[in-house]
Write a structure and sequence with these properties.
This protein is α/β, with parallel strands linked by helices. The chain has a domain of 108 residues: Aldehyde Dehydrogenase, Chain A, domain 2 (3-Layer(aba) Sandwich). The chain has four helices and seven strands, in the order H-E-E-E-H-E-E-H-E-E-H.
C-alpha cells in the first residue's frame, strides 16, 4: 500500500488527506485513511489491488470511460458505484468485471452473501450457500431400476454385432 501511494504521488497524484503512517503509531500495520486525486491509468495503484484505506480518484469523461477503466485491470474483487440513476446502477452492475458490486453503499457485508472476485482476484466463492458448495463433492447418479431398450436411444439390433454368414456388421 505504501509503495502504491508513493508511486502515485511521484507520478503526479495528490494526497488530499492521509498518505502516511500515523506519527503516533509508528509500529505495526497502521496507515492513515487516504484520498488520492489526479490519478492516471499508468499509476500502479490503478492496476494493483490495494488492501488499505486508500481511495484513488481518477477523472473520466463519461460513464463508458469509467467502466472501461474499472475493467482495465487483471483484478476484479469488488467495485463501488455511486449514482442517482437506477438504470446506470443496473448497467454498471452488469458491465463491471468484479465478483461483488456495491451501489451507493460500499462494503456492506453479510455471511449470507457470496464473497469472491473475478479474474486474478479469485475463483469460486466463500460464505453463503455458494461458498459451502465449494467444499462439497457433488455427484450425479441415475439408476433405471427397470431398464428397457429404447429405440430412439440405441436404434441398432443385436444381430448387427454378431457374425452372420461369415461377416460382422460392426
Amino acid at each position: 500500500m505504501i509503495r502504491l501511494v508513493e508511486d502515485a504521488k511521484s507520478k503526479g497524484a495528490t494526497a488530499v488527506i492521509g498518505g502516511k503512517i500515523p506519527e503516533d503509531q509508528p509500529v505495526g500495520w497502521f496507515y492513515e485513511p487516504t484520498i488520492l486525486t489526479g490519478c492516471t491509468p499508468d499509476m500502479a495503484i490503478m492496476q494493483e489491488e490495494c488492501f488499505g484505506p486508500v481511495a484513488a480518484v481518477m477523472r473520466v469523461q463519461d460513464f463508458d470511460e469509467a467502466i472501461a477503466h474499472a475493467n482495465d485491470s487483471e483484478f476484479g474483487l469488488g467495485a463501488s458505484v455511486f449514482t442517482t440513476s437506477l438504470e446506470e446502477a443496473m448497467e454498471a452492475a452488469e458491465r463491471l468485471e468484479a465478483g461483488m458490486v456495491w451501489v451507493n453503499n460500499p462494503l456492506i457485508d453479510n455471511d449470507a452473501l457470496p464473497f469472491g472476485g473475478w479474474k486474478r482476484s479469485g475463483l469460486g466463492r466463500e460464505l453463503s450457500r455458494l461458498g459451502l458448495d465449494a467444499f462439497r463433492r457433488s455427484k450425479m447418479v441415475i439408476i433405471d431400476h427397470k431398464p428397457v431398450r429404447q429405440g430412439w436411444w440405441y436404434p441398432y439390433p443385436d444381430d448387427w454385432f454378431y457374425e452372420t454368414g461369415g461377416r460382422k456388421h460392426v
